[in-house]
TrEMBL record:
Residues 4-133 form the VOC domain. Gene3D superfamilies: 2,3-Dihydroxybiphenyl 1,2-Dioxygenase, domain 1 (3.10.180.10). The lineage of its organism: Bacteria, Pseudomonadati, Pseudomonadota, Alphaproteobacteria, Rhodobacterales. This is VOC family protein.
Length: 135
């Protein structure tokens, strides 16, 4: 069960302004490859911009404090943003969380086609995503 940093998600009320900031001020490039297909009919319909430093993506997502309610999930990854890791064995990682007594919200493919996502909190309440790309 390997984890690698995949993206940082920032939630904002103004995606265009944040996208311009990260591209113009930090010099990040607009991400064009390997982008997820968003499932806008399943509970989160916000705008998202994607930028990268060439290794790690930054997802700039429209803030939606109701997304957890709309998807019937405890953890809302677009209310304050989150950090995301990709794994090669999500089943083993979920078993690891269960053994550690850490509850998580299993979003499945609700938000992104082809990504099985889970979300949970660290001890300070920061949201962490772990996802596996469906084969």
């Amino acid at each position: 069960m390997k984890l690698t940093l995949h993206h940082i998600n920032l939630s904002t009320d103004n995606v265009a302004r944040m996208d311009a900031f990260y591209r113009d001020v930090l010099g990040l490039a607009r991400e064009t490859g390997g982008l997820p297909t968003l499932e806008k009919e399943k509970g989160y319909a916000g705008d998202v911009a994607f930028v990268t430093d060439g290794a790690v993506q930054t997802h700039i997502a429209q803030k939606d404090v109701q997304a957890g309610f709309a998807t019937r999930q405890i953890v809302n990854p677009v209310s304050q943003g989150h950090i995301a890791y990709r794994t090669d064995d999500l089943t083993a990682f979920k078993a690891h969380l269960d053994a550690q007594g850490i509850p998580y919200s299993d979003w499945g493919n609700t938000a992104v086609t082809g990504w099985h996502q889970i979300f949970f909190y660290d001890p300070d309440g920061n949201v962490i995503e772990v996802h596996q790309v469906d084969n």
